[in-house]
Amino acid sequence: MTLFYHQRFFSDTRNVATTTLLLLVVGFWSVPQAFLLVPVVALIGANQTAFDASYLLFARQYAAELEAYINRAMRHRVLVAAELEDRYLFPLNTPKIVTISPGRDISWFGWMTLLYTCLGGLAFVAGLVLGWQVLIEAGTGWTVFYLGSLTFLTAGSLLVGWWWFVLGTGEKRLRKILDNSFGRTQPD
Q1: Farthest-apart Cα atoms in the chain, separation
Q2: Contact 68, 77 (CB under 8 A)
Q3: What pLDDT digit, counting tens, does each position of 42-73 carry?
Q4: Is residue 172 within 8 Å of 95, Cβ to Cβ?
Q5: Please, are residues 97 and 109 in contact by the beta-carbon 8 Å criterion?
């Protein structure tokens, strides 16, 4: 399952980066309205790659539980991939910003997430700044609609992301099922 995550994540990242660069080129070339699509593409990209990461968390949680079950059944610690991933990528069941585990648990994986997030944020702002004149010329109605929609969707994405990742809602849902599985306890 983690293979599919990585394939999907890098495909999504490539698509967003390519689309963003093409929109910037088109905007500088002769269609400045293209600049105003950059924030939309950046926001979609941020949400899609966070969605991809939620699948990685799902896969890692399930795999870690399977490993623990097999190790218990064998009465020997044979499988350690989940422990390696916890130390090398990012720990499960801890507050994190998508896959960024702040503090001593930061990793190259977390850094790459931070890098892509910062570049997406810069593209978002650049698209707004470069397209600002187009927005003003479109009139107050379109400006309010565009900025209001973008603000609402961005705030919603940040709030739901905080709830799902930082507060750990997604992982807590998985833990509730996994803690009641594999012969440890009976479901509620």
Answers
A1: 71
A2: no
A3: 999 999 999 999 999 999 999 999 999 999 99
A4: no
A5: no
- 97: Cβ contacts below 8 Å, ≥ 6 apart: 113, 161, 165, 166
Helices 38-74 + 140-161 axis angle, to 10: 10
Q: Which two tokens stand for residue 167?
A: 């507060």
**38/88 Cα distance (integer angstroms):** 33
Token pair 């422990």: residue? 83
Amino acid at residue number 137: E
Element counts in the chain: helices (H) and strands (E): 6, 0
Query: Rg of the chain's alpha carbons, rounded to an integer?
Result: 21
Spatial distance between the Cα atoms of 164 and 171, rounded to a whole number of angstroms: 8
Residue 43 and residue 157 in contact, taking contact as beta carbons nearer than 8 Å: yes
Which candidate, 9, 31, 34, 6, places its Cα nearest to that of 20?
34
Residues 6+ apart with CB under 8 A from 178: 61, 62, 65
- Phi, psi of 4, rounded to the nearest 5 degrees: -65, -35
d(CA 166, CA 2): 21
pLDDT digits (tens, 9 = 90+) for 71-129: 999 999 999 999 999 999 999 999 899 999 888 889 999 999 999 999 999 999 999 99
